[in-house]
TrEMBL record:
The protein, known as: Receptor-like serine/threonine-protein kinase
PROSITE patterns per record: BULB_LECTIN, PAN, PROTEIN_KINASE_DOM, PROTEIN_KINASE_ST
Enzyme class, first EC level, given as a word: transferase
Gene Ontology biological process terms from the UniProt entry: recognition of pollen
Annotated keywords: ATP-binding, Cell membrane, Disulfide bond, Glycoprotein, Kinase, Membrane, Nucleotide-binding, Serine/threonine-protein kinase, Signal, Transferase, Transmembrane, Transmembrane helix
Keyword Transferase in annotation: yes
GO CC terms: plasma membrane
Biological source species: Rosa chinensis
Lineage, broadest ranks: Eukaryota, Viridiplantae, Streptophyta, Embryophyta, Tracheophyta
Amino acid sequence: MDTKTSPTKFMIFLLFSYLHLKTHVSLATDAITADQSFSGDETIVSSGGVFELGFFKPGKLPNYYVGMWYYKRVVTVKTIVWVANRKQPVSDRFTSVLRIIDSNLVLVDETKSLVWSTNVTSTTTSGSATSIQAVLLDNGNLVLRVGSNSSLLPLWQSFDHPAHTWLAGSKIGFNNVTKQTQKLTSWKNSEDPAPGLYSLELDPNGSNSYILLWNSSRQYWTSGSWDEHNRIFSLIPEMRLNYIYNCSYVTNENESYFTYALNDPKKISQAVMHFSGQIQQLTWSETSKQWILFWSQPRKQCEVYGLCGAFSTCNATSLPSCSCLKGFEPKLLGDWNLNDHAGGCSRITGLQCGNATSLNGTQVTQDQFQEMTRMTLSENDQYAEVGSIMECESICLNHCSCTAYSYESGGCSIWNGDLLHLQQLEASDTNGRTMYIRLAASEFENPPKSSNKGSEGHTDDKWSLVIAIISATAGFLTIIFGYFLWKKTLGKRREHRRRTINSSNLGARDGNDDTELPLIGLKSILAATNNFSEANKLGEGGFGPVYKGIFPDNQEVAIKRLSTKSGQGHQEFVNELKLIAKLQHRNLVRLLGCCNEEEEMILIYEYMPNRSLDKFLFDPSEQTKLDWDRRFRIIEGIAQGVLYIHKYSRLKIIHRDLKASNILLDGAMNPRVSDFGMAKIFELNQIEANTNRVVGTYGYMSPEYARYGHFSEKLDVFSFGVLLLEIVTGKKNGAFYHFEHSLTLAGWAWKLWKENRGMEVIDASVRETCRPHEALRCIHVGFLCVQEAPADRPTMSAVIHMLQSNEATSLPHSKEPAFSIHDMNSNVAESSSQTSTSACSKNAFTISLPEAR
């Protein structure tokens, strides 16, 4: 009988174990009591359903942690905000247990070993041990307390022990009583919550400011001192937008700390000490279902100290930012692939010391130096006065520990050991220095020839003779074939254009970029578009016609062909090729390839089945397809795309031609910013510039640009404001230019707004179904974007957060928009001294004057 029942029991046990493995089990409570414990997939959820606590696995390794995250109904993307055992993971979540033992919340692993504890001493507890419970609160605080009385001070709380996330209501500071420092410490990388190298904490020197530290020792950023009157940190101007956050500084004999609250309690926001070394303030967007970055510090990634580790450089215009020096390779390749570059790089070939000899007695070539220009120099150098650069090099070679040197005006700086915090600067940055990195001779493909003085003159004579023969031959051939070369001038121009485009495209080969864009043959494009048939034509813009193409693998693409009648040309083509190939963002159109054959200049993009925004926005038969939710999602998406090119792409870019026809819509009606032919590259630290030739579209141009050619990122903000008003109203800005002295779209909307008739501004097709406070807020933000003075316009980062604000009345005050009553002819006259007006369009088409970039 036993032999019959045992298999049955065994199968039931296996089934139960399988279900236990696969099923997420909530304890339907917000607390762990003294007689409870949980493991595996069991969790507790705060009473209001905001936060959840349980086991989680952040990466591919079988490492499990007890952590806290937003409940899935609040934030759909699993976002960890606190980790208990971040220094010591467990390998089996089903045999590891979290429970209360001896008045402490503890985690024990499969071997019953203590992994983590709240470490409350018995002298701090009172009452029965059976009444101790750990409760998860809706503000994200896990508290250990006696009984259910929430008015009593907790025995322990997670707010006193933050991990990498600063939640509203928690503190970052120092407790004079417990001698505890509340600070944020980054994860090691995206898959390892172990404490990383970067931390945010209160300045221990009493400056009432926050500082970012590398390795708990090296300060590389400060918030600036706290201004109690304006309630901001002096070096974080974004805090002036205090309609979102309300920060407070508290200091007394017991503690000193900063805390913040959200003016809108329905908002979900957090500050994160990111493993990249930046402190980031993020807000959850319920509309786009993603975290939106409000601000980050330091603004430039390469300003983070030690970001790339030893023997690696940081380049703000490349992706990834970190790369090993020549002759070095990542020390920890697995971490490097997770964007954790702190381990740095190590030598591929070891150095020789002096004129060493090998084991077999042969002479080993002396170490050599790799020249690196436009560098910021590493710290901890040793300085000596020398007579020449050769003397400086000799000093380094004679010290086995010397790894690099730099020479300038009789001064020699040498570095021993690891080189940290190297930055590769832009070509236009004059602050860079030349540094010489010591490498093994084998790292050089062509070692320097011997400088034997006896043979030097003879060698020079031979080279002089060779050069003379080559020069004479070249001159003779030039005369013979001059006529034929003149006949082929057109072909030469064609080839020059091809080389220019190829060099723009394949910049990776010279180390300037890591983007390689496919070159598509013209025959393949002709086949894909049926010889550019009218049936395949999607539309036409200032650049030329756009066709739908289908490649042999059934891949649908959009093919933009430069028209010979277009005012745009080779410069715009190359400009767009250079820019958009380097941009990767969900709200930017993606460039797939290009073609430059037989006078054709063609760009191949991902296919957007819903074409451009203007087709829906200004066509009465299509407007109903744009309900309010879609319009608001489109507004947010465009803003995110523009913010990316302004602040977070590898190049800082001003688009200069934002308008509805340049916004493409994918199959889910998500927006993609397109057409970068008129875009302008800025240096990362550049704020503004001037041009002698104005390009763009009248009606979307800011006043300072249309009149004087002065532009900055606030030009795009102005264009975005006009576009935002078009999306809300369903009216085309160009429709208000039919008569002289007529109102602009912003002027028409402003007039109704001042008469408290804001709802009449909203498109009639969505007026009854929209969320009024949201639509009115969009109108208000639009007015702020189209202010006359650039300084009065917000940044795109501020725009995104204003769109997320709950009440329109909480937004900054708006002045009357620019061009409220506008005479376009006078505007053109003002700028006529700088550009030809005959090629300019007032709204429908792009101004097609090219300019050097």
